[in-house]
Specification:
heterodimer, A: alpha+beta, Aldehyde Oxidoreductase, domain 4, Aldehyde Oxidoreductase, domain 3, 7-stranded mixed sheet, 5-stranded mixed sheet, globular, B: alpha+beta, Uridine Diphospho-n-acetylenolpyruvylglucosamine Reductase, domain 2, Enolase-like, domain 1, 5-stranded antiparallel sheet, 3-stranded parallel sheet, 30% helix, binds flavin-adenine dinucleotide
């Protein structure tokens, strides 16, 4: 890679380039798109969790004002089953396509859709539709059906779910009780609840050409799903999504609603908009499954882990097998010779689960880091000291060296910022002036880093503007801004001159937005495109009859401040645009590609962090408030400290929500969710954000990550935080709560 | 949401004659509860009678000297911050400010708050098959369902829902009087008689008749403005309904309790008061042991279900702590 000529953009705080558009409403989200003749659709959903549809009585709805059509199994187009690579393993979502049969597998399943002039008319008509069912066997109780569990091998096609090394059973049998922890931890179903609901606008130009404006974190993936389901040529399907109002894992994949929108538009030959309601966000776009995790920890006399067993019971829907990989990182977070990891999956009559921010890691590390705290107490060791003694110097699960790991510095730095060394080890030993119990807890955070293949195209126009395109996504994390920084840095043009465009299948391919790998994947492609453009530009400047810098050596040309210049000859600097004009070029285009290299075979790539939390617990009422958080993270190079901090603020707050209040509650007798709204599904409000919030990054570039050395930081904030809160609650009260969320009912009268 | 007619009468008489002639009509005040229920399909009015132009939003001193009259259309936010309320009835101001969010309080009215319906999940979502309150005779989904937020006192096997209001708990402790106008003229209902226990007719929340309108809420002159408070326990620090709450209004003179009124929220189908428990405080010096006995008396007969066992000790702690704080 050529040295950047403007090495001051990356790593500096920059305001969001799309911030103004967002706060003024100029940013167009999927549901905002306007075109002529849009009809609005509203879903007809199952109110039974298991069985068959006998009859859908739509006679009244058909006659209601504004109704164009009603689409159900009766008149649905025959859709092509999704190919293996879009359905099994790898890609969660509903591989079962909508309206193809009469089976009902969960409450809220889409059974039909009303298409009307207005949203209100469609909703009103949908409410008048009566469905008769033949009820089937109801499977809603995870523990009750545990004996029917299967043991899947992989999650997402790559994460090992069953693993062992050494001999856990022998250690377990021979270890004295006082050095064992044997406990069960559980986490509830959770829903992503991004502020923007799922939304799609389907437009058919003709029978073979479909455009879908949709809130998705995978435009290319959505394109493949639609092409497969409707039997279209892939290039005849265009999917557009310039902004996502958050997803946390929910959007993307093959969810039914956008396929329904496309089928509806085809039926009535008009553009159709389908926007999910908040309540539908609980059953139409995935959720985090419940986990029940049994942990066994054994330590030798020196406090070193001797055995670790982690068995997770979780569920998927009846139509897809997605396993929340809670035990995945238990295999490697600490050094331990004897490990046994197991996942058991029960298929239940609930909606299909999928990844949610830190899938597996968030619930799994809650359990592991709670168990470590329990072990520290048993061994009479400081919880931080126990973690230091069990530091993993390599990835024992794959026998690979870490690419870059500075966890000990996170511990050190975090502990001193927090004042951890003055912690009184005895629980329930401190009170604040209001009589509330004060507790301190900590936990380790970890999240894998990855690079996926990506491409970008860059165009320099003779007005000096630079447009870069890639089919990546902006979920509110700052893609537009970070990528603009990369372009600015690499080409030496001011950020204001650069426009980054994303979220369109007509742009060069980029991966789905997930796994915290967006920057690590897309930035190298952008940099490659910039380098190719810069080579072409320098060639224009040097070669040919009209070249302005003839005779200068290639290496002596510098791109900075939007100009090309040289120190070697007394030639005046020239704006990039003028180089194009002078050489009679309207524009200059270059492409770039990047993908994981050999380093990915050799090293284990993980980000790390240490999070320290102070809570106040009212002993009479059981109310918990997080008073203080210190989080120190080793996530590789920081591209934009302002955006990075926002990600961690959000991530840690998400973790506080997971610890204290979030939970989707199904009614066991009916399988219906009782709290599918934001009034009763609690996420933190502003007053739940701790008043003292310290976030620091070590900012050490990962030498083996492509390009800048950024590993990614979108998810690590939620990892560790729930355990740190639970551990702090134990320290405050002496009561161990192993079942999330830790609501007041679990702590009354501690 | 069904099609409907919208009317905005300018005087009380037209509003009342409209409600008489259109039995499926509903009054619209702030709309923060009615519209939610409507969108869910729990309510399906054919006519909306907007009562915001009836001129009922005054907050004024009563001629009796010391009392206060609050119009039914006064906004929750205006009541909470009105100087006569913050000075004389801090418990009411605190209760209002503990409820909902600023945006909702700006829209919500006193009349609407008195009439707000339970947040029982099985009531709120008509796709749950069982709810005697929504659909008499269909059963109670909460009894064997997820009943963490449900009642522990005064419930029946027909219904274990709670009244969710914070304001009403304070009004109960202040012994407010609800002024009502109907076909046969005006009447006044004491707050204690306004909300009902579910009994065999859980579909009836209140004793207000369908063709009556709440016009105002009167508060008697306060005896003591220092020793009262509202305490609310909830799942997050703001913007959540009470798991349990208490409004406590004490009179204290020369170190002794001269009058005591305690209302509990989140535990029953109406704000919960027990005169016998309050009487135990008459003439005694504030002390924890007495308060614990009072709490036990208040909670006498409490019965919990699978998920709301915690409410009994929690309510007890709320009463004791509330009394300690109010009497300090
Ligand atoms: C997300 C959310 C959170 C909330 N949190 C809380 C909370 O923490 N604590 C709390 O106490 N409340 C809370 N609330 C409820 C809120 O206080 C009520 O919705 C509000 O007080 C209702 O008042 P309104 O004027 O909007 O009533 P409307 O919705 O207009 O009316 C409600 C009912 O009262 C009837 N009505 C209105 N005025 C009169 C009248 N003068 N005479 C006769 N009938 C009348 C209407 O016909 C309707 O049936 C919350 C609400 C929401 C949506």
């Amino acid at each position: 890679m050529a040295m950047p000529d403007n090495p001051t953009v990356i790593g500096t705080p920059r305001q969001r380039v799309d911030g103004k558009a967002k706060v003024t409403g100029a940013a167009i989200y999927a549901a905002d798109v306007k075109t002529d003749g849009i009809a609005n659709a509203y879903l007809i959903q199952s109110t039974l969790a298991s069985g068959r549809v006998i009859e859908i009585d739509q006679s009244q709805a058909e006659k209601m004002p504004g109704v164009f059509a009603i689409l159900t199994q009766r008149n649905a187009p025959k859709l092509q089953p999704l190919p293996e690579e879009l359905s099994a393993n790898g890609l969660p979502g509903e591989s079962r396509l909508p309206f193809q049969d009469d089976r009902v597998y969960y409450q809220g399943q889409h059974l039909g859709v009303v298409i009307a002039e207005t949203f209100e008319q469609a909703r009103d008509a949908a409410a008048s539709v009566r469905v008769r069912y033949q009820p089937g066997e109801l499977r809603t109780d995870l523990e009750g059906f545990a004996q029917q569990a299967i043991e899947p091998r992989l999650a997402l096609g790559r994460i090992k779910l069953q693993d062992k090394r050494g001999d856990v059973d022998w250690v377990w049998a021979n270890m004295p009780q006082d050095r064992l922890v044997d406990a069960v931890y559980s986490t509830p179903i959770e829903n992503h609840n991004p502020i923007e609901p799922g939304a799609a606008l389907a437009i058919w130009e003709d029978q073979d050409h479909l455009t879908l404006h949709v809130s998705t974190r995978g435009v290319d993936l959505t394109q493949r799903v639609l092409a497969a389901a409707f039997g279209l040529l892939i290039q005849n399907v265009r999917v557009i999504c310039p902004f996502i109002g958050g997803h946390f894992g929910s959007k993307g994949f093959s969810w039914s609603y956008f396929i329904v929108a496309a089928a509806a538009a085809r039926l009535i030959n008009r553009p159709v908009r389908l926007v999910l309601t908040r309540s539908q966000m609980f059953d139409s776009m995935g959720q985090r499954a419940r986990t029940v995790q049994s942990f066994g920890l054994a330590a030798d006399e020196t406090g070193k882990l001797a055995a670790l067993k982690h068995s997770t019971l979780t569920h998927s829907s009846m139509v897809y097998q997605y396993t929340e990989p809670a035990g995945a990182l238990t295999r490697l977070l600490y050094a331990c010779p004897n490990i046994q990891i197991n996942h058991r999956l029960v298929q239940l009559n609930y909606t299909t689960p999928c990844p949610m921010r830190a899938p597996g890691e968030a619930p799994g590390i809650f359990a592991l880091e709670s168990a470590m705290d329990e072990l520290a107490i048993k061994l009479n060791l400081d919880p931080l000291e126990l973690r230091l003694r069990n530091h993993a110097d390599k990835d024992d699960s794959e026998q690979k060296p870490w690419s870059s790991k500075h966890l000990k510095e996170c511990y050190d730095h975090g502990a001193s910022k927090f004042g951890w060394s003055s912690r009184n080890p005895h629980p329930a030993s401190a009170r604040d002036k209001d009589g509330r119990l004060v507790g301190w807890g900590m936990a380790t955070a970890i999240y894998p880093a990855r690079q996926e293949p990506a491409a970008a195209r860059i165009t320099l126009a003779n007005d000096g503007s630079v447009v870069v395109q890639s089919a990546t996504h902006e979920a509110g994390t700052g893609t537009y801004t970070a990528m603009t920084q990369f372009v600015s840095e690499n080409l030496g043009v001011p950020m204001e001159q650069v426009r980054f465009e994303l979220g369109d299948t007509q742009f060069p391919h980029a991966p789905v937005n997930g796994g915290s790998f967006l920057t690590a994947s897309v930035a190298p492609a952008v940099t490659a495109a910039c380098n190719n453009l810069r080579d072409k530009l320098i060639s224009l400047a040097l070669d040919g009859p009209a070249a302005p810098f003839t005779g200068v050596a290639r290496g002596d040309l510098v791109l900075a401040d939007g100009r090309i210049s040289t120190q070697k000859k007394s030639l005046p600097p020239m704006a990039l645009a003028d180089v194009l004009s002078k050489t009679n070029n309207q524009q200059l285009v270059a492409e770039g590609e990047a993908g994981p290299g050999d380093a990915y075979q050799k090293f284990a790539f993980y980000s790390f962090g240490a999070v320290f939390v102070e809570v106040r617990v009212d002993p009479d009422f059981g109310e918990v408030r997080v008073a203080r958080v210190v989080g120190v993270y080793d996530v590789g190079k920081i591209i934009n400290p302002m955006l990075a901090r926002s990600q961690l603020l959000g991530g840690i707050t998400f973790g506080i929500g997971m610890a204290l209040m979030e939970g989707t509650i199904p009614d066991i007798p009916t399988g219906r969710i009782v709290n599918s709204n934001l009034s009763e599904y609690h996420v933190p409000v502003s007053t739940d954000v701790p008043p003292e919030f310290t976030i620091e990054f070590l900012d050490i570039p990962d030498p083996n990550m492509a390009d800048s050395g950024a590993r990614g930081l979108g998810e690590i904030g939620i990892v560790g935080t729930p355990a740190a809160v639970a551990n702090a609650i134990y320290h405050a009260t002496g009561k161990r709560i192993r079942d999330l969320p830790i609501t007041p009912d679990k702590l009354v009268g501690v | 949401m069904n099609a409907f007619a919208y009317v905005r009468p300018k005087d009380l008489d037209s509003a009342l004659s409209l409600i008489r002639s259109t039995p499926k009509a509903r009054f619209l005040a702030g709309g923060t509860n009615l519209l939610d229920l409507w969108k869910m399909g729990v309510e399906q009015p054919d006519t909306l009678i907007d009562i915001n132009r009836l001129g009922l939003s005054q907050i004024a001193e009563l001629p009796d000297g010391g009392g206060l009259s609050i119009g039914a259309l006064a906004r929750n936010s205006d009541v909470a911050t009105h100087s006569l309320v913050t000075e004389r009835y801090p418990v009411l101001s605190q209760a209002l400010l503990a409820g909902a969010s600023p945006q909702l309080r700006n829209a919500a009215t006193v009349g609407g708050n008195l009439m707000q319906r339970t947040r029982c999940y099985y009531f709120y979502d008509p796709n749950f098959p069982c709810c005697n309150k929504r659909d008499p005779g269909s059963g109670c989904g909460a009894l064997n369902g997820f009943n963490r937020i449900h009642a522990i006192l005064g419930q029946s096997d027909q219904c274990i829902a709670t009244n969710p209001s914070d304001m009403c708990v304070a009004l109960a402790a202040l012994e407010a009087k609800i002024h009502i106008t109907g076909p046969s003229g005006e009447r006044v209902i004491a707050i204690a008689d306004f909300h009902r226990l579910p009994g065999e007719q859980p579909e009836l929340d209140t004793t207000l008749r369908p063709d009556e309108l709440i016009t105002a809420v009167d508060l008697p002159a306060p005896a003591d403005t220092k020793h009262n408070l509202y305490l609310k326990i909830r799942d997050r620090s703001s913007f959540a309904f009470a798991l349990v709450s208490a409004a406590i209004v004490l009179g204290i003179g020369e170190g002794q309790i001269t009058s005591a009124r305690i209302a509990l929220g989140g535990v029953a189908h109406k704000p919960w008061r027990v005169p016998e428990a309050e009487a135990m405080l008459q003439g005694v010096k504030p002390d924890r042991a007495t308060f614990e006995k009072v709490a036990d008396r208040l909670l006498q007969g409490a019965h919990a279900y699978r998920y709301n066992q915690y409410k009994i000790p929690l309510a007890r702690n709320v009463v004791v702590r509330g009394l300690l704080a109010a009497s300090a």
